[in-house]
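Issue 218. Parser rejects a valid record. Input:
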Amino acid sequence: MESLKTARIYVAGHRGLVGSALVRALRARGCTDIVGATRAELDLRDREATFDYLRRIRPDVIVLAAARVGGILANATYPLDFLSDNLRIQTNVLDAAAHLRVPRLLFLGSSCIYPKYAPQPIGEESLMTGHLESTNEAYAVAKIAGIVGVQSVRRQHGLAWISAMPTNLYGPGDNFAIDAGHLLPALIRRYDDAVRCGLGTVTNWGSGTPRRELLHVDDMAAACLTLLDRYDGDLHVNVGTGEDHSIAEIAEIVADSVGYSGAVEWDTGRPDGTPRKVLDVSVLRSYGWEPQIGLREGVGRVVEWYRANSGALRE
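Output the parser choked on:
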């Protein structure tokens, strides 16, 4: 679009991990008309309320970063909640935005949309070419529906809507709950607790052998701005580093960052999930974006943030 600076931008989920990073990036860009609503102010699962809100604010741009999210255990335990909540959030926002002919929308999904055994690195063309990972299948199906929703609006209404599929994200404002959080914040919480409590052993879930790609949320926000500035295509776009590490290697980085030097055990009774998941990010890179924050640097930053904010964390 011509200029984000002059646009009214609605960030759905503006207080979440991704949404808050987007707000920071937009403000740094010089955008001043950024709109958001808390869950208490607007339940996006409520269709009438969502339509009324968008009619009232009349945004030029929407970034749909609101979602029900969680780690492998939460997804496996509450699949109906993840499917139902995310389908309702997406459908309500997309339908209301289409009704109002909002010119620009960026839908954010997840790399879990891809088959469990997709060829590595995973290109955008791998979507719906195989079976999904069972532990987060419901969430993945909802996000695939969002991609198709955006593509359908482009075809039916000709609006410049796009989708981006990030890899595993981490950063300030994450959910550090042991049972509900994603991989990295859960590891930080576990290892930091071990340091504070003087524990000599940490037990991690799974075998430690699966490989994961991690992207700092500030790099994700920069990628979103690049796409909003430069991309207008039907294809969803991968967002990641193109590099992965074993979960055991990631755990070692976390241990070093928090100062833990004790023993580490692995609970192989816990699910490993997808054996490997690293994205092909050549499409995004062709538009001039590159990640700026290395994993060790990024983990160190998050550990500092976590310790400074441990008294006011969301669970």
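Fixed in the parser; the record now loads. Residues 9-175+213-242+278-293 form a domain with the Rossmann fold fold (CATH 3.40.50.720).
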